[in-house]
Specification:
- By secondary structure, the protein is α/β, with parallel strands linked by helices.
- It is about 30% helix and about 20% strand.
- A seven-stranded mixed beta sheet has the order 6-5-4-7-8-11-10, sandwiched between helices.
- Strand 16 and strand 17 form a beta hairpin.
- The longest helix is centred in the C-terminal third of the chain and has 21 residues.
- The C terminus is likely disordered.
- The structure holds zinc ion.
Length: about 425
């Protein structure tokens, strides 16, 4: 259903800044038996609210359609994410002097990949997640986790049981919840008076500046900046205290909020940076749509010209952002040979829309296509290191954003865990 009002402030003057057309649900992979049926598609457009500066998609797809996900996602399957989480926990424990009497709550805790670091230290914790497979796995591995959607009701229940939190963690979830006021109210209710909440989410400024339009899909209802989040948290008695920019997922923020109004120098600096750019004004977003169209044009030109030379092209990563990218490219079914993905639950299924068959990553070595379009460019370093053999045999990767570039077999890969951009030659330099 299309929205008429801003989900945060209720403002009724939403301005569309990017329209990606009608798109299937990015995570709705198709089984063989579904290929003969038409897919449901919904408008995919992002709007800016001039009243509160929040970016959001204009359509709310009903949850029973949006989350009809027939495969589980286990966070533990990414070594890079595990390392990132362990380091985060270590920093939190030191900063807030957490010990046996502390209590940590994580929202959208998945299979307990992050909380297990607290369990190992003897620090009390609780995970909350709506996906039953990962919740069962978390409990089996000794990470106490409840199966629920987080919001004010869930927070009220826990608070009435005395389970107030010193630290609350919410990674990659604050963009996903339609009733965002109810969600934030839950944090305000469950935090101890001195408690802090730490959020990680993709940073909309990075998305706009680096043209990462493929991070837009129906599940991502919001695209956050400090300016867009400030009025939302203030409405619930919470203040932004500190912020850190992270390279993960193409550019993220780690934001600390609490009932105290103290502001770090880093927060003031980034807030001032946003203000200077004008992220709270619609004019800042004026050329975004044009840059996205231009990127699509150059990426399509590159792929079509290589295909015309008889080159074979596969993809890597049947993730949601990949669906946005290939469906917006719209090169037609059968253009890509297949898409490799490490999640065994996806093998044998098809990506929505373009219906690209999903295979085990070993298929890259077996078939040795000339190019792999890296749909999960946010894990570029990890994927290309895992695919060292494919590369040694002459395979090239194509990184689609911020501008398409070919990574030839011999190119060095940045050693950072979340290499956003490898050390690459400019577009036009091709693998032999
Ligand atoms: Zn608003």
């Amino acid at each position: 259903m299309g929205i008429a009002n801003c989900r945060s402030c209720g403002g009724n003057d939403l301005r569309v800044i990017l329209d990606l057309g009608s798109q299937p649900i990015a995570n709705a992979l198709l089984g063989e038996e579904e290929l003969s049926r038409p897919e449901a598609k919904f408008p995919l457009a992002v709007a800016f609210c001039p009243a509160c500066a929040l970016l959001q998609v204009t359509e709310t797809v009903p949850p029973d359609i949006l989350y009809r996900r027939d495969y589980p996602y286990f966070s533990s399957s990414s070594p890079a994410l595990l390392k990132h989480s362990a380091e985060h926990v270590e920093a939190l424990v030191a900063k807030y002097e957490l010990g046996p009497r502390s209590f940590v709550v994580e929202v959208a805790s998945n299979d307990g990949y992050l909380l297990r670091n607290f369990v190992e230290r003897g620090i009390g914790c609780l995970g909350i997640d709506p996906a039953d497979g990962p919740v069962a796995r978390a409990n089996d591995s000794g990470v106490p986790t409840i199966h629920d959607f987080f919001g004010s009701q869930c927070a009220e229940k826990l608070a009435s049981e005395g389970k107030l939190a010193d630290v609350m963690i919410a990674n990659n979830v604050v963009a996903h919840v339609d009733d965002i006021n109810n969600f934030v109210a839950g944090f305000a209710r469950l935090l101890k008076p001195t408690g802090v909440a730490v959020f990680e989410f993709a940073y909309a400024l990075d998305m706009v500046e680096r043209c990462e339009f493929d991070t837009i899909y129906h599940e991502h209802l919001f695209y956050h900046t400090l300016h867009g989040l400030t009025p939302l948290f203030r409405r619930h008695g919470l203040y932004l205290n500190d912020v850190e920019r992270l390279p993960i997922h193409g550019g993220s923020l780690r934001l600390t909020v609490s009932r105290k109004s103290t502001r770090s120098a880093e927060l003031d600096a980034l807030f001032a940076h946003e203000a200077a750019l004008g992220v709270d004004k619609v004019s800042f977003y004026n050329d975004f749509a044009e840059r996205v169209r231009s990127l699509r044009g150059s990426l399509a030109d590159l792929l079509l010209s290589e295909k015309a030379k008889g080159k074979r092209i596969a993809c890597y990563g049947a993730a949601a952002k990949g669906a946005t990218l290939v469906n917006y490219l719209d090169l037609g079914e059968n253009f890509f040979e297949f898409v490799a993905d490490a999640n065994p639950y996806k093998h044998g299924k098809y990506m929505p829309g373009q219906r690209i068959p999903i295979r085990h990553p070993d298929q890259l070595m077996a078939d040795q296509p000339d190019y792999v379009l890296l749909l999960v460019w946010n894990f570029a370093g990890e994927v290309m290191r895992q695919q060292a053999t494919y590369r040694e045999r002459g395979g090239s990767f194509i990184i689609p954003v911020p501008e398409p570039c070919v990574v030839p077999p011999g190119a060095l890969i940045d050693e950072t865990q979340f290499a956003i951009f490898p050390t690459h030659p400019p577009l036009g330099s091709r693998a032999p």
